[in-house]
Amino acid sequence: MITVYKASAGSGKTYNLVKEYLKLLLGCKNEDGTYSLDRNPDDNHAGILAITFTNKATEEMKRRIIAELDTLGNSASDSPYADELCTVLNTTKPELQASAKKALGQLLHDYNNFNVSTIDAFFQMILRTFAYEVELSGNYNIELNDEYAIAVGISNLKQELHESGTTEKARALRQWLIEFMKARIDEGKSWDVFRAPAGNTQDTNLYSFARDLSKETVKRNIDKLIEYLDDKSRINDFKSALQKSIALNNDRINKACADFNQITKGLSDDVFSYNFNKKFTGNLTSEQTGKICDKQGKAEKWFKKKHLGSIPYSIIEGIDRCIARIGEAAQAIESCNMILSKLYFLGLLGDISASIIDFTKENNVVMLSDTNEILKKIIGENDTPFVYERVGLRLRHFLIDEFQDTSEMQWENLKPLVRNSLSTGNDNLIIGDVKQSIYRFRNSDPSILKDKIYTTFRKEEITDIGGSLKENTNWRSAKNIVRWNNTCFTLLARKLGMSDIYSNVVQQVAPKNRDKNGHVRFEWIASDKDTGYKDVILDKVVNDIRSMLSRGYKQNDIAILVNRKSEGQSVIEKLLADGRAKADDERINVVSEESLIIRKSPAVKIIIAMLSALDCQSNYGNHNSDDRQKSLALIIKRIQRNISNGRNATEAIAEAIGNDERIDKDTLFGGETPTSIAMTVERIIQTQLSDTLRKSQTPFIQTFQDIVTDFESRYGSDLHQFLKFWESTGKNTTISSPDNIEAVNIMTIHKSKGLEFPCVIIPFCNWDFEQNTQLEWIESDKISITGIPQELFPPIIPVTRSKNPKDTAFKDVFEEMGRDARLDTLNKTYVAFTRAGEEMIAYIPEDKKGDLGTVLEEIAQARQDDIDNAASLYGEEISEELLVPGDFYSGTVLEIGKQTIPQKKDDNEGAERRWMPGYETGGKTGLWKFDVPDMVTERRESPKFKGVMMHRIMCRIKTSDDVGNAIKFFRTKGMITGEEAEEFGKIIRHGISSPEAAEWFAPGNRVISERPMINGKGNVYRPDRIVVTPEGKTIVIDYKFGEKEDSRYLRQVRNYMEIIGSCGFDNPEGYVWYIPENIIRKVSLS
């Protein structure tokens, strides 16, 4: 059985999830479907998987389960779950207590099988188990953020274009780019399509376009799209067909205009209304055709009223046909132009995707966004028991939280597992709320919870909870807040045609809150003639916060929710400005994502400035004038970019170079040469940051070091690449903040989901229900354009949603997407309004264009009849849980209840709090000395060091094509320098290029490197390389670097040959290879 619990905001979702977990952990299912107590719950926990969607939720869930088991196991009567569990499990509290105590002990002793995890973590566990089957290295890393991979992919594409410019593929790509750039210039846009985005811009660029590679619509079609784009003639033919269609339909419009003039030539200009006949001039713009088509079938709009009756019907019919022809042609033109506007971007997507794939293979990483598609090949093609057997799990029950945020691909991978659970008679729980689905941009699909789950499983396999009023209690909010939200969203959903989705929006007030009235205040703000509405609202926000503090609320009881980060920044600046004139104990402290972002730290700015200067010196290290000019040009470019990104002049220069002088590396590094970025950063912290700065910026410094360490573990110790990573991804990292920091919380509505606060202020509560600038991906089988063969269409087409979807070939798809967008905005509003526990204040700018403010004003004026009509849509009595907004509205203010005074809380004053100590750094530069396991303690310049390193490089080479990657591996790990990489590469490539050695590195050979062998006497031997050719010849090779020729090397290889021969390899050949001298000595068995 699957229990689908539709948990509205504040309805105790976590409580019910823990209750179900405890029931499955402590109970056993009887044949009649009831449960009884399991008195020996040995490994029940190993058969339960609870899936959450954030790491924070995972940790909270684990702590809560353990805490409740501890309470049940020691004093069952103190647990809020005890009575319900005793009823469900048909047991007594003493028996329940004994079972809970055993279960807790078993769980803690087998903690690895305490399966509470995020959906991504669970999928990664399966993926690692099946790494071999999907051709992944077992030690791959996960790349959580697509931004860096996209940046590298685009950068590598440019590099490839430069390096292989003479190939047919490169010529085709170059021609496509030239046409693209010309088209951009014609549109008045920047020709530089490779330019990274700077600040907020509505213009699509290659980086923002490539981000859509993580969208599931694209992922489902990417293989077909790459196949389509591999042959550039196909997209060129499609582009030509679109251009021909535009020209043809322009001719049709001109012909329709000519026919109109022919039909009406006998009529005087006076009979036409507003010179309607003068509009049919030919060569019409899209705006002109739109105005004409709006009047189709409306003869009263064509002719003056007094003349309309005298116009022959044949003329009216003829005019209408002409307008219809214009409309059809205009629709085709608009559709073609919408496709053409993004077609050049689409043409580059296959090359970018291929470049990203190369990047992931070279660096042994898997994009997190690719996980679901890879897993589909595993789970979809195997029986679930086989998957469990490989993973080492025996999952019987699934508890899935926040199900409305599940994506289609995630559900495709979970569905077989849940179906298997049902087939064996086990119970599962799905918890979610379609009303709180606000992450569609992250591929979440609320239709799975709303519809698809009911078509996936049989009706008798599903039990719904939370759909009726008696099952829907709000335990979070005070009475007035609950009833305002009940009323507001009942009316709002009705107005938007979404009453079916919001059928369970009305909630009961929890018994504990029935005497707690709460306070709701919505105020419509007129614009000040001098300063506009923003300053008026911000002044009110400051006054509201100070009022709340004066009534006994703490700063961390208050949250300010914004729709956009820029709005949050305005609030932060206002509160900081207000605090400058106040004493320390009167200042309003602020915590927000922006205040915790790592790039804002002065310590991190200094570190990045130093690293940038070091990188600049490395790239242009010589002191001749040309290099200095290049270095200066690079610095100027960085300064300009930083200023364009919003930095002030001081910050821009500091981040670009740190200071105007070259860095003395000997002084900085104490005569040593750090071989990793982390070591370099540690030295910068030690020598360039003051004690005061280290102490005040400890969290930022430690987070930065974590970023550096993580980057090096994935991509190696290339400083230039790290700085690229920093610009694309790393700089946006935020530090974790303590939950109880004494500061007002400022966050976006999306960030607030799942949180609650006693007081909530929404300063700019007015947003559009639908945005028309969003890029959408449409599968081509859903559209058609007359005159363009369907086989010319690519598998998917990117278009920007039109303001008038009815005027394009995409109208049906756009209408569906428009409904989804309106639902997402309605849900976002619901999330914002349901965060407050005791007090909610919202300000609505009257002169700011936005759909929500207008609709809320209508709702604020609703009377009893409006409420009764809305309530009648629901099949149960909900009137008692609603209110009449008009009773509380006074023209510009809706106010329900009075300002509240907080209830006293247990502040846990006895808890010990300690400040985090300042960042400590040692002065032991010897710790940085290059050290590798099995490495000789020789100086880097010594022949022995070089020999050992080249020997290790050779062990990673299977064919001659692997030389570059093998050297790159040691270079990026910081184990060899750039100069050493170049030197070793020349030596190795020269050796492999000899005719005799070439056979040993040819494709198709079976190669065994550094594999130990044991002879009959127990002696261990480790030949450097054993090669078995496709013809069956066996060859053993021993590498020598820098050693003089010696007969003992021949005897050593002869021993290898004898052991290999005794293993069944006939007539093995043996060679000693002095690689630097390229001398090869053959070894005979006799």
Describe the structure.
The chain has 1086 residues and is an alpha/beta fold. Among the domains are: 2-139 and 370-466, 3-Layer(aba) Sandwich (Rossmann fold), CATH 3.40.50.300; 598-732, no CATH class; 930-1083, Lambda Exonuclease, Chain A (Alpha-Beta Complex). 48% of the residues lie in helices and 11% in strands. It is built from 37 helices and 28 strands. The strands form 8 sheets. The protein has a 7-stranded mixed beta sheet, with helices on both faces. A 6-stranded parallel beta sheet has the order 5-4-8-9-1-10, with helices on both faces. Strands 22-25-26-27-28 form a 5-stranded mixed beta sheet. Helix 37 (1047-1062) links the parallel strand 26 and strand 27. Helix 9 packs across helix 13. The chain is globular and about 115 Å long. 35% of the residues are buried.
